[in-house]
Amino acid sequence: MIGAYEVKDDKMAKYLVLVQDMMTRFEFIMFELVPRSEDEQADALANLTFTLACLACSISLKSLDRPSIDATPIF
Length: 75
Description:
Elements: H1 10-23, H2 40-58
C-alpha cells in the first residue's frame, strides 16, 4: 500500500490506520485488488459482523434468581 488512499467514512479510515500499522510488522506483504462485483458477499459479511458486535455492546442482559413480579397461576 504505497501511495495516497481515499476512504469513504470514519470506519474505513480506522481500518486504513490499522492496516498501515500492521504492515510495519512484516518484511514482505502483498495486496490484491478484488473487484467490487466480487466483493459484495465479503462486504455484507463484514457489515453484519460489525452490526452484531454493536448490538452486543448496546444490549444489557441481567439474569434474575426469581421473577421480578409475583404471578398468580391461571387455571
